[in-house]
Amino acid sequence: MSAKKLTLLVFIISMSYVILRYHFFGDIPLSDIPAFLLNKALAYSGLLLLGFAGLQSRSSKRHKVGMAAAYFLLIHVIMTITLFSPEYFSKFFIEDSKRLTLFASLSLLCGTLAFVCLTHLWRVSINTRKGTDLSLVNGLGRLLLILVAGHTGLMGFKGWFSPETWPGRLPPLTLIAFVTASIFLWITHKRKHSNV
Fold it and tell me: Could you say which of 100, 115, 121, 150 would form a disulfide bridge with 110 (CB–CB 3.0 to 4.6 Å)?
């Protein structure tokens, strides 16, 4: 499958799931689909594409998929900064306060560090002419996945153990993202050690 088709397929699946869970089964209004829900879909699409990019054997396809992931995650960061407020991210804030909870602060720290790692990989990828090296920065991709797992885990773990509260009995995107990051981390770890 080409990089363009993979990117489109990943985005369609992610966006469909987000709309189904949070709008049709949840209480997120239609007016929030173009920004709030799109932001969720872009974040998960970016994670999936990032993981798929790391599994590509051809450097040119790895570069294209990785660049799509980077653009998706860049838009996610910008949209999150724009939307960030107690109205949209109430669980991030102490009740009746504009101060962040400890878990929210740690989640944002992981997310920020993950984006710094991604930016460095992005820069190195461009400078090395479309990712000529299989591993652009040794271990940085795995660190990025660990930080993403921390970002999503700290953000949503409190809702993971109450499936009766899940809209449509569909698991939260934070749980899916945590599991996805963990699977990609395990795969890359196994591949790294099998090549030693």
Answer: 150
